[in-house]
Amino acid sequence: MNHLEFGSRGEEIAVRYLKRLGWRILGKNIRIGHGEIDIIAMDGDELVIVEVRSRRIGRVMPPEMSVGPQKLRSVVKTARKYVDSISYLGNWRIDVLAITEDERGGVGIERFGDVTVGMRGW
Fold first, then answer.
1. What is the spatial distance between Cα 114 and Cα 91, in angstroms, rounded to a whole number?
2. How many Cβ atoms are within 10 Å of 76's Cβ, its own excluded?
3. What is the distance between the alpha carbons of residues 58 and 60, in angstroms, rounded to a whole number?
4. What is the pLDDT of residues 45-93, one digit of tens each?
5. How far apart are CA 77 and CA 111, in angstroms?
6. Helix, strand or coil for residue 86?
7. What domains lie within the chain, and their CATH numbers?
8. Rounded CA gap, 27 and 122, in Å?
9. What is the rounded CA–CA span in Å between residue 46 and residue 93?
10. What is the Cα–Cα distance from 80 to 100, expressed in whole angstroms?
11. Whether pLDDT at 122 is above 60
12. What would the pLDDT profile of 17-51 be if each residue is shown by its tens digit?
């Protein structure tokens, strides 16, 4: 399985996980300008832009660490464009879902909610 297939599989796992949490999935792989949003969902009455990062155990860094400042800026910019494009006026946030696969194919999922809280100038 190449890295694109692995990433796509991670997004499918993420969608199933979010549905189990009771979230409503609005879209997947939504292109906005030069950016892409992995998953758009509703957590109750809050819109959530979800960045999915998938890694296999043994990689240099865990999946959540691969969302550095440059990637986060890109996600925020794309999220703002999306929210503006649908004239959304409610609360929204950005979450990161880290999908980790072990040597036997077992999967771990960790959600990092509202990852831009406390950041300035975004």
1. 11
2. 17
3. 6
4. 999 999 998 877 766 666 666 666 778 888 999 999 999 999 999 999 9
5. 21
6. coil
7. 3-112 (3.40.1350.10)
8. 24
9. 8
10. 28
11. no
12. 999 999 999 999 999 989 999 999 999 999 999 99
Provide the token pair at 28: 């997947």
Give which of 59, 72, 69 is closest to 99, Cα–Cα. 59
Strands 46-56 and 24-32: unpaired
Q: Are 18 and 39 in contact (CB under 8 A)?
A: yes
For residue 80, give both structure tokens: 């703002």
DSSP 71-94: HHHHHHHHHHHHHHHTT--S-EEE
> Distance between CA 51 and CA 69 in Å, rounded?
14
- Interatomic CA distance for residues 14 and 32, integer angstroms: 21
Q: Which of 29-38, 65-74, 94-103, 104-113 has the lowest mean pLDDT?
A: 65-74
